[in-house]
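This is your field. Have a critical look at both lines of this record:
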Amino acid sequence: MPLFEARAALYSLAMTELSHIRNFSIVAHIDHGKSTLADRLIQLTGTVAERDMKAQLLDAMDIERERGITIKANTVRISYPAQDGNTYILNLIDTPGHVDFAYEVSRSMRAVEGSLLVVDATQGVEAQTLANVYQAIDADHEIVPVLNKIDLPAAEPERVKEQIEDVIGIDASEAVPISAKTGLGIPDVLEAIVQRLPAPTGDRNAPLKAMLVDSWYDAYLGVVVMIRVMDGVIRKGDQVKMMQTGASYRLDKLAVLTPAMRDIAELGPGEIGVFTASIKQVRDTRVGDTITHEKKPTDKPLPGFKPAQPVVFCGLFPVDANDFEALRDAIEKLALNDASFSSEMETSAALGFGFRCGFLGLLHLEVIRDRLEREYDLDLITTAPSVVFRLHMRDGEVRELHNPADMPDLTLVDHIEEPRIKATIMVPDEYLGDVLKLCQDRRGIQLDLTYAGSRAMAVYDLPLAEVVFDFYDRLKSVTKGYASFDYQISEYREDNLVKMTILVNDEPVDALAIMVHRDRAESRGRVMVEKLKELIPRHMFKIPIQAAIGGRVIARETLSAMRKDVTAKCYGGDATRKKKLLEKQKAGKKKMRQFGKVEIPQTAFIQALKMDN
């Protein structure tokens, strides 16, 4: 069948046989070629006209294209005329590779039956390869290994096949060798999808049961909802009900993504599509919810997903206090597109009004901040990233502490628990010593150390608070960029933690308050006050800069006063006159010191927190 006929067939097949549908995701480590492979599959099947093709077609956001990473999982429906004479509908989900967007990956896994595991034939299995493939195994997927970049001189396909079998434990003897860049081996991938991945199951005559996979806000259409139909049929104009929220809606539009929206009459079992239904807010559509017909509902909802839990919190404040309302509007609009981003209002004596925001990791934080600055033209100050600590009070109550500045009186607290992570680090053998030292310095506990060829895999139990600052940067630095890192939250554990307050001119500065381990508080405090001494400009009076735990000062620096030469006009004469002027100046400075307000430049807040070296 010619390709243009295949494309036409894509829209005429209102009732696709289940045996002719394949739903799959592409999973891999960062930069192993997921999005490039998706491009080649779209290009070879003629899903998008050649003139509309561009690199990383499914990465729609500017920030995704600039950074060269996938942030949102994206879907496309492909029609493929296979060698057996049948035309198959392939629903492809391109997933992110970075650890901060693992939530996107886990959601996508539940909507499909199989995965293409892409492994770079030059680099082999990396930390995120493991994390993503384990998610696919948990979701009971059929996995087809694909070896990418085999056209490069450094490619070692046989070694990488062995590594996949040793490290992951899946058969790689039939791994498909390809080059996603040149298009080599792409027809073999399409045949492997059709022959080796299972068809979906479902009953067309049962009551409608569809899973809500994702939702986003479109300026023209309102909220767009992506669904995977498990049982039954959904048609345009149907009255549907969300089982978690109980809300009912009439479908205005039903479409498939190719990747542009194309209207379709109905979606049957095993199919993935989108609909709009005059839904005003994305928060009305909960990811993992079950959608059914209002008149003839299904008995049992789908199990759904766990909601995304933010792990890193920081304050976002406008540089200009007049931009606060603009920041509020921008955050509300951004939250419509990103269900894993949370925010609440907060105030700071030093920075004014702003928001305390929750993120899935530091890259997520950077992406949100960049989008706020770029898409909404805002200048922002970001306070120190912190994690959620659990406070066990003496009266038996358990509280969550998001901001160290909100720490209650220590006499009321019985003990403090911090989140711990299980970190997997893959590193070439020659850098292993530096990596182990870095993990020891961050209060890490070694759990496992194994080898796959010349690469070591170290598994560590680390405190999340020690990782969110600059652990990833330091890791890349000590391994010259060759290490890969993946983590998951394991548990909360009690430790000897204290709140460190920074006082400038005897006034506490909320934005610089951090939680530290008591054993390291003194060295952290000393570095911080030394840095602030360099960053705060001199005033007309002496300024003490102190780091304190409770009422005890653990580090101090004094910023000397700018000294005006008050005796310059005294030419000769009696020395007592000069003495009198100096005494007068001293008294005036003492008074200024008492009432003077210290101006701290906004850059100092950011710079002081980049001291974790």
In short: The chain has five domains: 3-196, 209-293, 312-383, 390-495, 498-609. Confidence is low (pLDDT under 50) at residues 1-14. DSSP finds 15 helices and 31 strands in the chain. The CA atoms of residues 352 and 543 lie 22 Å apart.
